[in-house]
Amino acid sequence: MKISVVTACYNARLTIEDAILSVASQTHPDKEHVIVDGCSTDGTVEIIQSHQATITRWLSQPDDGIYDAMNKGIALAGGEVIGFLNADDMYADNSVLSRVARVFSDPAVDACYADLVYINQRDATKIVRYWKSCDYQEGLFERGWAPPHPTFFVRGTVFDRYGAFCLDYRIAADVELMIRFLSRYKIRSVYVPKVFVKMRVGGVTNRSFLNIVKQNLEIYRAGKKNNIQISPVSFVIGKIFFRIPQFLSRPSE
User: Coil, strand or helix: which one is 18?
Assistant: First the structure.
């Protein structure tokens, strides 16, 4: 089973190599890495070129933001299963794609996701937050829940049926896509209780309070679009409920 990993990047010179090496080190034999760069000017392209032996396809051209780049990656991907690894993220160990392949050996499974840890930008061994997920149930999105998107793997046929990232959402298109797939179209998903991804703190959404507000407003719109009723009050309270334990607990392994 071929698994495609799509990485969208722009001026990611300081971290892109870790992401590339993380995919290259995966023990699953049938994998590909697709990188879509947005015309970086900081040396990112040169780093990508230096690792061409382990990268299946890559391109560098202007895009309309990260989700447009991810959509280009989906179009380039040749795998039966597609996942997304951000340029400043890395897989937790070299067996992640093998675990994903085992889940998708069941032909009834459409998607899987797992846990994620936020790590210090300068010290990858220092965990800042542990995003532990859970099995999907109806009503979770309304209460502020969402799977960690970098751990979310989907069959390519699901994108064919239900579409890719909607560019109407500049910050929360990943959440809208997961709401659409899991809640609206009720694809069959499996939660794997393992840490799949290490994510450096300091992503675009969390860089400012304004971006957090914008993301929540986009999620509210995404809910309405996909026929789920999100109450702003219960959503915010639920988000706090899910998030506080993430700063207090740590993975057992």
Answer: helix
- Per DSSP bridges, beta strands 153-155 and 3-9 are unpaired
pTM > 0.85: yes or no: yes
Res. 104: pLDDT tops 60: yes
- Cα–Cα dist 113/231, whole Å: 26
Identify which of 139, 137, 160 has the alpha carbon closest to the alpha carbon of residue 75.
160
Two structure tokens written together for 110: 């459409």
26-40 pLDDT, tens per residue?
Answer: 999 999 999 999 999
Q: For residue 226, what are its two tokens?
A: 């996909």
Which residue in 213, 242, 216 sits closest to 139, CA to CA?
Answer: 242
Give the span between the Cα atoms of 188 and 66, in whole angstroms.
26
Report all structural domains of the chain as residue ranges with CATH numbers, in order of start.
3-248 (3.90.550.10)
**How far is residue 33 from each of residues 23, 56, 247, measured CA to CA in Å?**
7, 5, 32
At residue 175 the predicted structure's pLDDT band, cuts being 50, 70 and 90, is: very high
Lookup result for tokens 């993430």: 246
156-161 — which CB contacts under 8 Å span 24+ positions? 156/4, 156/74, 156/77, 156/79, 156/80, 156/81, 156/82, 158/110, 158/111, 158/187, 159/74, 159/82, 161/185
Tokens of 105: 């050996």
